[in-house]
Design a protein that fits this description.
Layout (H helix, E strand, L loop, with lengths): L1 H31 L11 H21 L12 H24 L14 H31 L5 E6 L3 H12 L5 E8 L7 E2 L2 E6 L3 H7 L4 E4 L6 H13 L3 E4 L11 E6 L2 E6 L6 H21 L1 H14 L5 E7 L5 E7 L6 H12 L16 H8 L7 H7 L3 E3 L6 H4 L15 E3 L1 H4 L7 H13 L3 H17 L5
Parallel strand pairs: 1-2, 1-5, 2-4, 5-6, 11-12
Antiparallel strand pairs: 3-4, 7-8, 9-10
Helix pairs in contact: 1-2, 1-4, 2-3, 3-4, 8-12, 9-11
Length: about 475
């Protein structure tokens, strides 16, 4: 953790250099590029001095956007949008200052800093900061592949949540965790879980922290009493070890909460935040515009796929299947047919053979899938006809994935919260593993999306869908 603290001033210093440097570079470009309109060349010293204010302001905006928290040393779409937001806000503030203090800064009543230079500096800062952070993320990724820079973590609990968390961090080094082992809560017959040893019980935590290099302790079991939890937190604080926990009861209550006091007793109240009217109108407008654009732009490809399906096997090109949508209403979802005509007849045989327990039959070598179907599934081309469902209003571009009535019949009560909104063509499940996820994991992601929706979240999911589709993780 101390190395990460040392990394912060390095990142901040380079960021400030980039911000100040791009402002002075923008000054040079403004008067060197022939295609830009000619203007009298102002004093370089004036712009050079102002560039330091630009750097400090940009640093403040990056800091407020969370670019120095360093929870994960990676770079993704969210980080790009944080940089975009910080650079845009700082540029807008500079323009406002430029107008308010007109004449006081430059020394001339009719002169201000060039808006074109500010715009060029905005673009250069956005590109160079993103490239710099992305390059650093690639370097750290190579370190992680070599086992360097990972946080040693001990997992308290041995139940399914603990096992699932362990599998997740073992399979993805981007989480930057190295699991050392498990601690049981009480008597535990297992000596090994997920290939890792059970290091002892929770009472042994203090001794284990002294003997092992531990960076974080993650609590996953929810059957501990408050005194045990408090003792565990205190043990971690004394040893300067990060304590984290995976929510139990509140895993199904992801909504924003407000705190009220009644007779000096705090009461947590859930706040309803599901798509207000303006949100629904904005989301619907984006659905219509994007759907029409995709259908029109790639019409030849859709025609080619339809012909390929028809030539390979008999049957309709479009497969219509019942799905459960908003308000638990059943609708017909359209897809390009990727299976043979008798696929549904074989399904029951395969369910009995494979003894599926997740209510989702997901087999990489599914014999029901045709050759063309395997290709279009690999790149999710079979989903394109769902744009008709989007235009019709049965679905949205982004939202929880709709399941079949037989799958919904096995839902628990808390999982039915996903029916509060329109289902989507893509969503968090598509960019976090697709069919490699269990039903519970899918629905948890869907509920998280519902409670944290914003236009920016939809845009981020759409941008992340493309690489997820190209890499084809979980697609079969």
């Amino acid at each position: 953790m101390s190395k990460r603290l040392l990394l912060k001033p390095v990142l901040a210093s380079v960021d400030v250099v980039i911000l100040t440097g791009t402002f002075t570079l923008a000054y040079w470009l403004r008067f060197q590029l022939d295609f830009l309109p000619e203007r009298p060349v102002p004093s370089f010293e004036l712009y050079f001095r102002f560039s330091f204010l630009v750097g400090i302001l940009g640093f403040a905006m990056l800091s407020s956007s969370g670019m120095y928290r360093l929870r994960q040393l990676s770079f993704g779409v969210e980080d790009f949008f944080r940089i975009f937001r910080a650079v845009t806000y700082s540029s807008l503030i500079i323009m406002v200052m430029n107008f308010i203090f007109r004449g006081y800064i430059t020394g001339y009543d009719v002169e201000t800093y060039s808006r074109l230079i500010i715009l060029i500096a905005w673009f250069l800062s956005l590109v160079l900061l993103a490239c710099w952070r992305f390059g650093m993320a690639l370097v750290f990724k190579q370190f992680r592949k070599q086992g360097k820079g990972l946080k040693n973590v001990i997992i308290i609990g041995t139940d399914q949540i603990a096992r699932g968390f362990c599998r997740a961090i073992q399979q993805n080094i981007e989480f930057e965790y190295r699991p050392l082992g498990f601690l049981s809560n009480g008597a535990e017959p297992d000596t090994e879980v997920e290939g890792l040893r059970v290091m002892g019980s929770i009472e042994d935590l203090s001794e284990i922290i002294q003997c092992e290099i531990v960076n974080e302790v993650v609590l996953t079991c929810m059957d501990m009493d408050m005194e045990q939890v408090a003792h565990t937190i205190k043990t971690c604080e004394r040893a300067d070890v990060q304590f984290s926990m995976i929510p139990g009861f509140f895993e199904i209550l992801t909504r924003q909460m407000s705190v009220q006091e009644v007779a000096d007793i705090p009461i947590f109240q859930l706040e309803e935040r599901i798509f207000q009217r303006w949100s629904r109108l904005m989301k619907r407008g984006m659905d219509i515009v994007v759907s029409l654009a995709v259908l029109g732009a790639f019409a030849p490809l859709w025609l080619l796929v339809a012909v390929g399906i028809r030539l390979e096997s008999s049957g309709a090109m479009i497969f219509k299947h019942e799905r459960v949508g908003k308000g638990e209403k059943v609708f017909l979802m359209w897809k390009f047919r990727s299976m043979y005509e008798d696929a549904e007849d074989r399904r029951r045989e395969m369910e009995a053979k494979d003894n599926s327990i997740d209510a989702l039959l997901r087999l990489p070598d599914d014999v029901r899938v045709t050759a063309v179907g395997r290709f279009i599934r690999r790149f999710s081309i079979d989903e394109i006809p769902q744009l008709y469902n989007v235009l019709k209003g049965d679905m949205s571009l982004v939202g929880p994935r709709p399941h079949m009535p037989s799958e919904v019949a096995q839902y628990k009560d808390w999982q039915r919260r996903k029916f509060d909104v329109l289902p989507g063509m893509t969503g968090l499940t598509q960019i976090r593993g697709r069919k490699d996820l269990s039903l519970d994991e899918m629905v948890r992601l869907d509920i998280y999306y519902i409670e944290n929706w914003s236009p920016l979240v939809d845009l981020q999911i759409l941008l992340k869908t493309a690489p997820a589709v190209l890499w084809g993780k979980g697609a079969y």
